[in-house]
């Protein structure tokens, strides 16, 4: 019979390895050994041992120039295998379609990629004016669109400060959006439990969004509804919010995540 302590130690090692992969995935340019050890609160030799094993298995690669670790080719290969079983856009398509039919407006699904929000799915409703201007696969800084603001609202303030600093120059492209304005919108979204933003991602368009949160507290996606500013008045928002929350709950069930309470 295996020693119970050995089993627990093995489980801890697996968890640490997974956390390292998540940490590196969240840093687009990769991360150095010292940074990983600090963030993970690990002794440097322990972190080095884990990184070496992950690299040998193809889950990570080390840049010889910068000494930064990045995700390896095996991650991509595993993703290809899992794609059909965990295609978020395909899984959520019926929920988006239902939301678009109920609100008569365009519904969107966004995911986070580093400091950006990426549109991965959309469905148009029956209202005679639709707003499908945000293209599939397009990305904008977190905080610009309803989806990006919803994702941002699920993060802690200490984290968003760095994100907004990194995106400051790009934010200005969208209606001269500033860090202060984005933080004000962030606070409003956290207080309300949903994000509302207009004119920045697309002139003349107003969107409402809700984040969908994983069990570890990080946002996995955001679901939104957008239409013209004139149509998206307070009464329309009040009608949309319960349907948006229901859609977020449905997606939570599909993805095994937890929505922000």
From TrEMBL:
UniProt KW keywords: DNA-binding, Transcription, Transcription regulation
GO biological process: negative regulation of DNA-templated transcription
Molecular functions per Gene Ontology: DNA binding; DNA-binding transcription factor activity
Pfam family of the protein (one): IclR_C
Residues annotated as domain IclR-ED: 74-257
Classification via PROSITE patterns: HTH_ICLR, ICLR_ED
Protein name per its UniProtKB record: IclR family transcriptional regulator
